[in-house]
Design brief:
Layout lengths: L8 H34 L76 E6 L6 H11 L3 E7 L8 E4 L4 H13 L2 E4 L11 E5 L12
Length: 214
């Protein structure tokens, strides 16, 4: 018995049409499955790394918006180590009592005053009591550096300031002699080994100056 037996002609025509549509749909579906199945074997799943035909992993391209891995990092300049400036050493002030430099209260431009730091020894070679003390007072009042006052034995003809040649004593002795009116000479043998300084040996010709008014 036929599937369409018992149906009217119009119904049979409609059934045949439906069967034809179904057959066409089945043919199209089979073609689609056949072509899609071959692509699915080689399709790369999302997120997996594609490989080449020899099995090597292909490099993946960077994601959009991400910085390239080959971009070198920004170079940071090394901190400059500037050498600390050293301030120039302060100049040392001249010390009081150094050769060629005036002592305290002595004008630097006064050639005579520049020698007054030299030690002066005052010896009395006269019969006048206190003559060496008075002369020492005169010298000190004028700014001279008197370090010793005493008597001297023997007999000398006149007041003289004695010095050791080639030392600061020479210029000092001449300045002192010029200021107080007597002569300056090199030391003689008997006083050669006395300590440093100008040696003034007074006789009765020394005229006291008494510059401090006493």
């Amino acid at each position: 018995m036929s599937l369409f037996s018992g149906l009217s002609r119009p119904m049979k025509a409609a059934g045949l049409a439906l069967v034809g549509v179904a057959v066409i749909a089945a043919v199209i579906g089979g073609i689609t499955l056949t072509s899609g199945g071959g692509d699915s074997d080689t399709a790369t799943p999302p997120g997996s790394t594609p490989t080449s035909s020899d099995g090597a992993t292909q490099p993946s391209s960077p994601a959009p918006g991400s910085s390239s891995a080959s971009t070198p990092p920004a170079s940071s300049a090394p901190p400059s180590s500037a050498p600390a400036s050293s301030a120039p050493p302060a100049s040392q002030p001249g010390q009081t009592g150094q050769p060629g430099q005036p002592g305290p209260g002595q004008p630097g431009g006064d050639q005579q005053a520049s020698h007054k730091w030299v030690t002066v020894r005052v010896y009395n070679n006269s019969t006048i009591q206190g003559l060496a003390d008075q002369a020492a007072k005169d010298f000190r009042a004028s700014g001279w550096n008197v370090s010793e006052v005493k008597g001297y034995p023997g007999r000398l003809p006149e007041t003289v300031a004695y010095y050791r040649p080639g030392t600061d004593e020479e210029a000092a002795a001449k300045a002192l002699a010029l200021e107080f009116g007597f002569r300056a000479e090199p030391r003689f043998k008997e006083i050669e080994n006395i300590g440093p300084g100008v040696i003034v040996i007074l006789t009765k010709d020394y005229k006291t100056n008494d510059k401090d008014g006493s």
